[in-house]
Amino acid sequence: MTYCLAINVNDGLVLCSDSRTNAGTDNVSVYSKMHTFIWPGQRFFVLLSAGNLATTQAVVKKLNNDIPAGLAPNLLTVNSMQEAADYLGVVSTQVQKLHTSRDTATTSFEATFVFGGQIAGQAPEMFMVYPQGNYIHESREHPFLQIGEIKYGKPILDRVVKRDVSLERAARCALVSMNSTIRSNVTVGPPVELLIYERDSLGEGRRIYFSEDDPYARQLSERWNEGLMKALQDLPPFPWETETKTAEDDGRVLNFPSNA
After folding, report:
1. What are the record keywords, sorted (predicted)?
2. pLDDT of residue 246
């Protein structure tokens, strides 16, 4: 399975993906699910992929090959992020149809993508592109998108990620979201890739690769676990816990009525 997420805040974009692919319990491999297309000073695109590996690889290859082949539209000719998302949707559905026409079994060739980036003179944007080729934009209230195993890492995003969060804090939040997913689902695993793109930089950004035994990733996980335990301990007690403690301090015994 897969877990990928993208965050769009005022200062730029944060993208994070795992690298584990599964074709059965005895066939686990590592493939990058983060792909960048960059023309410094002009445009920056990043693609996160989930779904059938043959489809995602073929889509990425076509996105790269359409440019030197002079086929239009392509990532260099589109005039907006929305046009780029339209183009990606068309490429994805074409690839799926081609694979399906060759298949003699009942294989699913569906793939889902998170596509983000910026074109010079325009605001950064990101879209989730579905297998059918249609897409959605992130919401104002929740400026993030997820694909794959989304349920384990979503709570922290819901609570923390807002438009005014700094890039670095959003990046740490993305790593915690990924860490929570990895701990709860064995089909998602390292290496983890993180990309931090500063708004209007139109460059490569900061791309970081976290292996399974990376010291920073391990420290972040330990700190988060410690923080959760402390937060649990600091939660307010039930009323009867406070009353029991007071009675013990006074040397008295209180008998509480049964609800049965």
Report:
1. Hydrolase, Protease, Proteasome
2. 58
Gap between the Cα atoms of 176 and 219, Å rounded = 11
Look up residue 244 and give its DSSP letter.
H
Going from the C-alpha of 198 to that of each of 35, 85, 121, 130, 258, the distances in angstroms are 17, 21, 14, 26, 60
Cα distances from 102 to residues 63, 97, 98, 99, 116, in angstroms, run 22, 9, 7, 5, 31
Separation CA 13–CA 124 (nearest Å): 8
Which domains, ranges and CATH numbers included, belong to the chain? 3-212 (3.60.20.10), 213-251 (no CATH)
What span, in angstroms and rounded, lies between the C-alpha atoms of 102 and 108? 12
Tokens representing residue 146 in the block: 């997820």
Successive 10-residue mean pLDDT values, the chain, 260 residues: 94 95 62 95 97 94 96 96 97 95 86 97 97 93 93 93 96 96 89 97 96 92 94 91 63 51
- Indicate the SS3 state at residue 111: strand
Whether the CB-CB separation of 6 and 116 falls below 8 Å is answered with yes
The DSSP bridge pattern shows strands 3-9 and 111-119 to be unpaired
- Identify the burial level of 194 via C-beta atoms within 10 angstroms of its C-beta, where 0-12 means exposed, 13-18 middle and 19 or more buried: buried
Token output for 64 = 């790269």
Torsion angles phi and psi, residue 253, rounded to 5: -115, 125
